[in-house]
Specification:
single chain, 423 residues, alpha/beta, Aminopeptidase, Alpha-Beta Plaits, 2 domains, 4-stranded antiparallel sheet, elongated, metal-binding, hydrolase activity, Peptidase_M20, hydrolase, cobalt
Length: 423
């Protein structure tokens, strides 16, 4: 245990809690992308006061970007006293909508019973605050460190990260020689190191029909019935096949160690939101579903797509008048950083010091911004590590434990010590 770093973090507990509360009070709800700019500006001020050079960078042209909802990111850099590697802490500032069922105001930042409550407390403003305190503590104890520390607050992770990390990665912010190591303080539990994530393929499937009067459906062709045939085939053929696939990746929870498919949405017919009116008496000439296919490192993207397309093509041969179109929405390959890479080794050493045990190494069931750092920045010494319990994310009364943030900040500070002073 590096007692000097642990003490420096513990001296900043009040600051850590206050920073978390301040961040929660920005309702950075995505979609549509509320309060991104004021939150990024607030972060820039906080980091500038700690000696960082800060830049506000708009993800111009990214999905959702507009003058009303600019995709504003902040990137801050603090140079050491001599050249060396750069460690980058990346956190997303956007949160999902609050939804119903809260016992507290979701955007107040309530501190109670050793916890901070609010939308984004766990996912992941608590982790962002912890990384800032970790860097501050490290720089106070070791002002003569070599290399550089970067901290970013980026947008749109909840909707794919295209206006945030993807935009910055395309612009060179997550590539060597600028950056060597990346830690993403996602809420994967304070004693676990997340090495990567499963792959994802999102696609829209549309079945086509012919419109006719609802009283004479035999004169038309129902796209909804065609889609029902697709869903029936998925149930009979695809779901059992996916359920039989297993991975050697340490994905958590256990149920995610297999391939999965979710139907994210379904829309069919001419009128879908008719309240307080009445629906149109028409045969549906279009029906669309969005599928969310999560796949394993043992599978190829081509194989994943072929399984779905094979069913659609068979239905086209066997079912009269069946026709479809398919459109890719997002595709990301699985990624898994090696345990012996520099960042996981540094974090593991710190976890052993703080908790007195070996860390668990896990893989996330869903993707996060590591995907863009790997595929666009071609930087693979990147993991997720941060405070918070993933099961609390996106739920009412979301919270992060204060002691969890303190311990995670201590781990991150000690990782900086290994990566920058003892590299």
């Amino acid at each position: 245990m590096n007692e000097s770093l642990a003490r420096a973090v513990s001296e900043r507990v009040d600051e850590l809690v206050a920073l978390t509360v301040d961040l929660i009070r920005f309702p950075t709800v995505n979609p549509p992308g509320e309060a991104y700019t004021p939150c990024a500006e607030h972060l820039a001020c906080i980091l500038a006061a700690r000696g960082f050079e800060t830049r506000l960078i708009r993800g111009e042209g990214a999905p959702g970007d507009s003058d009303r909802y600019p995709r504003t990111n902040v990137v801050a850099r603090r140079e050491g006293r001599a050249p060396g590697p750069t460690v980058h802490f990346n956190s997303h500032i956007d949160v999902v909508e609050a939804g119903e069922g809260w016992s507290v105001d979701p955007f107040t930042g309530v501190v109670r019973n050793g916890k901070v409550f609010g939308r984004g407390a766990c996912d992941m403003k608590g982790g962002l605050a912890a990384s800032i305190i970790a860097a501050d503590a490290f720089m106070a104890v070791y002002p003569d460190f070599h290399g550089a520390i970067e901290i970013s607050g980026t947008v749109d992770e909840e909707s794919g990260g295209f206006g945030g990390v993807a935009y910055l990665a395309r612009s060179g912010f997550f590539s060597k020689p600028r950056v060597d190591h990346v830690i993403i303080p996602e809420p994967l539990n304070k004693d676990r190191i997340c090495l990567g994530h499963r792959g994802v393929w999102w696609a829209e499937i549309e079945t086509h029909g012919a419109i006719a009067h609802g009283s004479m459906p035999f004169l038309g062709d129902s796209a909804i019935r065609h889609m029902a045939a697709v869903l029936s085939a998925f149930e009979a053929e695809l779901y059992p096949a996916l359920d039989a696939k297993r991975t050697d990746m340490p994905v958590v929870p256990e149920g995610a160690r297999r391939s999965t498919l979710n139907i994210n949405s379904i829309h069919g017919g001419q009128t879908e939101d008719f309240f307080p009116g009445l629906p149109s008496p028409n045969v549906a000439d279009s029906c669309r579903i969005v599928i969310d296919r999560r796949f394993l490192i043992e599978e190829s993207l081509e194989e994943v797509k072929d399984e779905v397309i094979a069913i659609l093509e068979r239905l086209k041969r066997e079912r009269p008048r069946f026709d479809y179109s398919i459109r890719d929405l997002m595709e990301v390959l699985p990624t898994m950083t090696a345990r012996d890479a520099a960042v996981p080794r540094a974090l593991a050493k710190a976890v052993r010091a703080v908790f007195g045990r070996e860390p668990d190494y896990v893989i996330s069931p869903g993707t996060y911004d590591q995907k863009h750092i790997a595929r666009l920045g071609h930087l693979h010494d990147c993991v997720a590590y941060g405070p918070g319990i993933l099961d609390l994310a996106h739920r009412p009364d979301e919270w992060v434990g204060i002691e969890d943030m303190v311990q995670s900040a201590t781990v991150m500070a000690m990782a900086l010590d290994t990566l920058l002073r003892k590299a």
